[in-house]
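thread: overnight batch results

M.L. [08:02]
morning all. the overnight job finished for the chain we discussed friday. pasting input first so we're all looking at the same thing
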Amino acid sequence: MSPPKVVWIATHPIQYQAPVFRVLAASKEIDFSVAFLTQHGMQPSFDREFGQKIQWDTPLLDGYPWELVGDAPMTMREVRRRDVFRCVAKTRADLIVVPGYGNLTLLSCIAAARASGARSAILSDSTTLSSNLPTWKKLAKKALLSTLLAEEHALIPGVRARQAILEIGIRPANIHPYPHCVDMDRLDAQFARRAELRTETRRDLGWSEADVGFVFVGKLIDIKQPLKIVDAFQRLGFGKLAFIGSGALEPQLRERAQRVPGMQVLGFQNQMSLPAYYAAADAVVLYSSSETWGLVVNEAMAMGTPVIVSSAVGCSPDLIEGHDTGWIVDPERVDSLAQALREVTVHQNGLSPRGNNARRVIDRYRPSDAAAGVIEAALSVGKRKPRRANTEPKRR
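M.L. [08:03]
and the structure it wrote out:
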């Protein structure tokens, strides 16, 4: 009997998903391919939040079969529903992986799967149903989603996402683990050079081995609260702080850097450059007011670096709480962040106890672990029943 066929509907190529796709494509348990809704990321593309054109320096399209849906526009707003239905119908998949349920295009992917006789597995890291809606709208949304999605499957990265999926009525038996992950093979190779990278990067930054060093990596936007990180760092009164990234707040941060001793703004750095900065840091800081997961935390921990995160960061209960891999602080109290900064100490070329714990914990968050959840979902669905005739919507 042939293995179940799995088609992953992806919004666009994402640097963190490509390693998972390669593992799935190599599996003998499923027949795997990807369908991209847009071409965003396949060529240099303007990222609104980074505020510049971005092209990742890691391969995004190698090692797995893929196709474009329709004429593959650059934005989700341009995706035509009929192209989605045609794509899903022709795949004859047993399982369609859909990256969420937050807009009509994604809901149409789920509807197309159902119409073709396939099942859906919703990959969702959403941590709340609808936090900003009035109560009656929350209840209405929950009722609608429960009706649409209750019989589908779900892939979830952690405990908060699991709770959100349960809220919309998906059965526990249909929920499968999908631990959010990064390219651990690449980072393992960099971790083997950690001491060398730390020494070289600190020298390049002008940091001494005696300096307590903090690093932020990400978009310099309000939701990441970089200016509050500066406020906390100023209360500390010593050490070094480097911001790596770009975005709307970059001019304000550069202005602050002229007045705050030890602070640097390094601009956008591509994927291959980041491990050296993680190695140089005594802690990586992610003080977001809202964050569904925070894959920068995975990357930092893979390099043996402790993390300081706000309790609003979605991965905090999975990667930090109870694991002694870092600190969880209040996103609305800068003094709690300042206190965590004070508790970080220099460990020079050796790993701190929290850094050792970070490496141990993150070893369970590899692309192979994420792929295992997808395979589990596919095998639980099994082979599809014969498809009903005329599944493609009528043309007007």
